[in-house]
Amino acid sequence: MTPATLCLDREVIRMGRLSGKVAVITGGASGIAYGVVEMYVSEGAKIIVADIQAEKGAQLERRFAGTVYFNACDIRNEEDIARTMAMAEEKFGGLDVVVHAAASVDHKQKIADITVEDWDDGQANLLRSHVMCIKHAVGPMQRRGGGSVILVSSAAAENFSPAASVLYVVCKGAVLYLARWAAFELASCKIRVNAIVPGPFATSMWGQLVGASREVADAMPVHLDEMMAGSQPLPIAGKPQDIAYAATYLGSDEARFVTGAQLAVDGGLSVFRPAVPKEKIMDYLQRAKVQAEEDLRSMGKSA
């Protein structure tokens, strides 16, 4: 992006739209959150990336030296989350925006297959982590006079996918209600809380459904565009920058009067989900996995 100015109600807004802001972005070492990191940097933000992928986090630090710092963070661990929020103040003097995008998927589709351990671990990842991110962002944001928390849910929460599981759907649905409640509770602190509701995006997370290694899963997205383009009314594949634009708006002062909102970035999936059998989805993912393995072998890498 290039610097630009926009006249609005006789005020001049100077790009970058996030200049002077400090953000924590969870899951920012890969997937859609990586796109958010790139756009936030381009718009002038300073960033703490929280992720479990240490090697990719180190690469981000080198790429955006002095602008991005990495903190190893398992979002199931409250202490890791608290340390991440504190790091924003230590490195950059405050915290203005949290984008909580880190998540995982599980393989067990049916209630009858879930164990207590499955539920507790998945809920800690997909729901409790959102609560803890809000909890530990409140203090730093209050010290800045307010802030913006952006929770990433899923279109599967309201328009079920045959590839989704009960655990994923229930937790992502709860995230939407959490965002509304937190928006109400924290309004007096001038802390805005909103949810982004993505449709299907070509990310490495799909690889978890077919047992792909992390290396193979990272190579799969380039082979998923056809499936993504047929997953919603708009016949195009969503890209990470589509989520990044939404997160940039919600994190900026342009959204100063927006809280408790659910912003669908789904190509119309919330309007209509095409009927695609689960078997077809899994077959497509298996073929993408095989193609990714072939890509890695052609580059001399182990699949």
Automatic annotation (TrEMBL):
Chain segments annotated as coiled-coil in the UniProt record: none
- Could you tell me the keywords of this UniProt record? Lipid metabolism, NAD, Oxidoreductase, Steroid metabolism
Q: Which Gene3D superfamilies match?
A: NAD(P)-binding Rossmann-like Domain
Q: Tell me one GO biological process term.
A: steroid metabolic process
Molecular functions (GO terms): oxidoreductase activity
Q: Which Pfam families match?
A: adh_short_C2
The record's similarity note reads: Belongs to the short-chain dehydrogenases/reductases (SDR) family.
Specify the protein name: 2,5-dichloro-2,5-cyclohexadiene-1,4-diol dehydrogenase
What is the species of this protein?
Trinickia symbiotica
